[in-house]
Amino acid sequence: MTSQLPSFDQLPKFEHLTGCAWGVWGKDDQLGTVNLLTEKVVAEAAKEIKTGKTVCLNWPINFPAKPLFNRKTPSVRSFVIVPDKSQNDDEIFINTQSGSQWDGLKHYGIPKHAIFYNNTPADDIHKGELLFHDPASVDAHSRRLGIQNWAQHGIVGRGVFLDMVKYYTAGGSKPLPYDPWTTHAVPASDLKACAKQQGVTFKQGDILIIREGFMARYLSATSQERNGLADKPEAFAGIKQDEDMKRFLWDNHFAAIASDQPAIERWPAPEGTPYLHEV
Description:
This protein is of the alpha/beta class. Helix content is 20%, strand content 12%.
């Protein structure tokens, strides 16, 4: 791929972690690979629209019904705001990891060193309750690496979909060779093979979307199985944590990655293997 960006092998290391992209877009960058969603990339993506049909890929905010990773259940309170009952308001409590969500740049850092993207110390990230009396005067610590930076820039581009379930099952003619609710690794070689089979080619700034079977497994499960998900240690299929995967993701210069699996990457990682969340 022709690009002015460094290749994966040209990126420096941070301690034991290879492929450190800190500084690629400057020491004060707030966007990471979302920088790849340039006006030119978005305009080129728009040229591929054929029908204009939209498809919602979001999970509901209350899905799964019993939240994973020990998070609180979202709640909604509706109430009447005038005596004649003709106007209503809602109040919503939601953990930002509920349903579908983007993991921001200060969601998961490098635990061993207590730092986040661009070598940002954990102590520089605001903790505790935030009171926004004036949205125009939010302090710098609260804004740093905040997901509002992505919202202001926008995440709009060309989505590329890899249906690993269809790939592994030969279009449904054979069973899926793994349980999406177990620790199973999908290697980069399989992602490449799936793309080739589907006739998918990648462009810089693509948003990679991978289907690995969580939803199909959930919808076919009993109520007892669904509720039991949150009562046991989390274990899910996902992309493999290795150099080939990091090289695949970086050298294709994806702007973002999404999946139907709760953690995108295999969870948990084998002992001694760094999580992709860290890099």
